[in-house]
């Protein structure tokens, strides 16, 4: 039988142990597993909606900054015959920092564009017109958490009162979760 994950003893483990699910196809088991994961996630709200990935945001970021600091220190303290190697190390660490930053920025920009298109379509379906031109991308991204019942009034408020993304999120009464953005 195919498996989806490895258990605590590093053994392949089926998605479910009950007999009924062994009759289901692998894709059906994956779908059921994903649904159950959504059900056990904490309810999302304004206070807990942002997500941090510790391995990326903390470990990798801190390691790159330590590498930059160490390589600059090495460059400053190196002997003349080691200056070339030290300079290459500084250059390499700066390139790694740029890769670190861009691997975060580029996908977020793509997600922003997708959210803008999705929310514009949702607003068009509800209001029969496109978003006001005065809304910024950060306001539109914040509006994705508003349910359909609150969206029209909140868009009008955001456009007329120039609400910030934080103010828009705080004004939402019934939070519509977004578990896909990281």
Structural account:
The protein is mainly alpha-helical and 182 residues long. The protein has two domains: 5-40, no CATH class; 54-171, no CATH class. The chain is built from seven helices and two strands, in the order E-E-H-H-H-H-H-H-H. It has helices spanning 19-22, 26-40, 54-77, 83-127, 137-143, 148-161, 165-171; strands at residues 5-6, 12-13. Strands 1-2 form a two-stranded antiparallel sheet. A hairpin with a 5-residue loop joins strand 1 and strand 2. The longest helix has 45 residues, at 83-127. The chain is elongated. The two termini are 32 Å apart.
Concise account of the structure shown:
With 182 residues, the protein is mainly alpha-helical. The chain has seven helices and two strands; from the N terminus they run ββααααααα. The protein has a two-stranded antiparallel ribbon with strand order 1-2.
């Amino acid at each position: 039988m195919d498996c989806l994950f490895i258990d605590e003893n590093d053994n392949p483990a089926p998605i479910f142990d009950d007999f009924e699910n062994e009759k289901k196809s692998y894709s059906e088991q994956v779908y059921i597993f994903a649904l159950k994961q959504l059900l056990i996630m904490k309810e999302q709200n304004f206070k807990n909606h942002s997500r941090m990935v510790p391995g990326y945001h903390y470990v990798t970021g801190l390691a790159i900054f330590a590498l930059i600091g160490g390589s600059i220190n090495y460059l400053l303290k190196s002997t003349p015959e080691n200056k070339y190697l030290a300079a290459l190390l500084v250059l390499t660490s700066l390139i790694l920092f740029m890769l670190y930053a861009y691997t975060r920025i580029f996908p977020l920009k793509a997600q922003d564009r997708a959210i803008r298109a999705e929310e514009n379509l949702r607003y068009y379906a509800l209001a029969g017109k496109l978003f006001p031109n005065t809304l910024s991308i950060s306001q539109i991204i914040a509006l994705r958490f508003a349910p359909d019942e609150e969206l029209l009034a909140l868009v009008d408020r955001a456009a007329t009162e120039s609400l910030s993304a934080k103010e828009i999120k705080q004004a939402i009464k019934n939070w519509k979760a977004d578990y896909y953005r990281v």
